[in-house]
Design a protein that fits this description.
The structure holds two protein chains of two kinds. Chain A has helices spanning about 5-20, 20-35, 45-65, 80-95, 95-110, 115-120, 125-144. Chain A is mainly alpha-helical. The longest helix of chain A has 20 residues, at about 125-145. The radius of gyration of chain A is 16 Å and the shape is globular. The termini of chain A are far apart. The model of chain A has no long low-confidence stretch (mean pLDDT about 85). Chain B is mainly α. Chain B is built from eleven helices and no strands. Chain B has helices at about 5-10, 20-25, 35-45, 50-65, 70-90, 95, 100-105, 110-140, 145-170, 170-195, 205-230. Chain B is elongated and about 80 Å long. The chains are: A mainly alpha, B mainly alpha. The interface of A and B includes residues 77 and 135 of A.
Chain lengths: ~140, ~240
């Protein structure tokens, strides 16, 4: 497992859950510290699932303490099509937190479907159907 | 999925770059166990007599080949199932003694440990058979490839049968069943040698090739099934 790559992905996940750069980085590092200190899951081939489970729980705890702020204005914007990126961010903001999280994990962080099923406790069929529905909704909103 | 949408989503979910990543990763590194280290660690858990028995059997095969005239390869071929029996008895040890749950609680995943131990014993046997084939070929009249086919076919057949039986029959009865299978393959080899010596003629090598392919397929299948079964036993 490429730890640097996973660090970036976990950090991205935490950032879009908490919407605070410093808190997201704190949670990312806490996630990795817990993983590093755990012997149970060493080399067990379930590292990604384990990392996301820790990050998810920590983000939930952090979210209970302090509610997520709106996304800051100075977020890096796409160089290719900034308008599309802006429209997409607006549409993503309208989604429920869990739907947004699912799109981020599957499409952007490319978390394997099997891992997501275990993380959410749903079947592959249910996960595919839900994801297809969200993406269809986003496409329609962007085209419409 | 629409590539444009996927690209746009990736850009929409671009966070500001992390500030403390480099410093964190510099100070917190986890030592991952590589495949070679895993193999060496697990080879240490293989019982000494598995190594000693394999080497002794290798010596016996060579001695038998030296003592018998013109029947070198065939008689050696009939002994390789015993080598396979040693491999199967080693890899099914935890199951035989009912220690699977204890292995599951170890730091290493059971499937990885089992794979490493199978690979360690299998590599030794491959090396031994790899040494035996050219020696027997030089002593006899049969080419190296043909010798390899005669040695590998009963070996792989016994491995496949042994793994299947050790998966189905638990406890010491499993070992007995594996031994019976190895002896059966041995006896079949001896029987073929005395009753149907034409089976070992050069023109029959095609059938041996098919038998080898079938035995190899069966072994791979059994190997995958065995590893899969260890995964099923993981805690949920």
């Amino acid at each position: 497992m490429d730890i640097e790559e996973q660090y970036n992905r976990i950090y991205r996940y935490c950032y879009f859950r908490l919407r605070d750069r410093h808190r997201a980085e704190d949670i990312t590092q806490e996630t990795f510290l817990r993983w590093l200190s755990s012997d149970t899951y060493r080399d067990s081939g379930r590292t990604i699932q384990y990392l996301y489970s820790i990050a998810r729980n920590l983000c939930t705890d952090e979210g209970r303490r302090q509610h997520a702020a709106p996304l800051p204005e100075d977020l890096p914007m796409a160089s290719e099509d900034p308008l599309l990126s802006l429209a997409l961010r607006t549409e993503l903001d309208k989604l429920s937190q869990e739907d947004r999280e699912l799109v981020l994990l599957r499409v952007v962080n490319e978390v394997p479907v099997g891992v997501l099923c275990k993380l959410y406790g749903v079947s592959r069929f249910a996960l595919y159907r839900r994801l297809r529905g969200i993406l269809k909704h986003l496409r329609e909103r962007l085209e419409g | 999925m629409d590539k444009k949408l996927k690209r746009a989503l990736k850009q929409a979910f671009a966070p500001p770059p992390p500030e403390r990543k480099a410093a964190f990763l510099r100070t917190h590194r986890r030592r991952e166990l590589g495949p070679a280290a895993l193999l060496l660690t697990q080879a240490g858990y293989v019982r000494w007599w598995t190594w000693a028995g394999s080497c002794a059997l290798f010596a016996a095969i060579l001695m038998l080949a030296l003592s018998s005239e013109a029947r070198t390869v065939w008689s050696s071929s009939a002994l390789t199932p015993l080598l396979a029996l040693i491999a199967v008895s080693e890899t099914s040890r935890a199951r035989r003694y009912g220690m699977e749950e204890l292995e599951l609680s170890c730091r290493m995943p059971r499937s990885a440990a089992l794979l490493a131990r199978m690979a360690a014993v299998g590599l030794l046997h491959l090396v031994l058979l790899g040494i035996t084939a050219p020696i027997l070929s030089r002593w006899g009249e049969v080419g190296v490839l043909r010798t390899g086919v005669y040695l590998l076919t009963p070996y792989l057949l016994t491995v496949a049968l042994g793994m299947e039986l050790s998966r189905r029959v638990r406890g010491q009865a499993g070992l007995l069943a594996c031994t019976a299978a190895a002896v059966l393959v041995c006896v079949l080899g001896m029987w073929a040698l005395s009753v149907r010596p034409e089976l070992y003629h050069a023109e029959r090598i095609r059938f041996w090739g098919i038998a080898l392919a079938l035995a190899l397929t069966a072994s791979v299948f059994e190997f995958v099934q065995t590893v899969k079964e260890t995964e099923e036993l993981q805690w949920t």
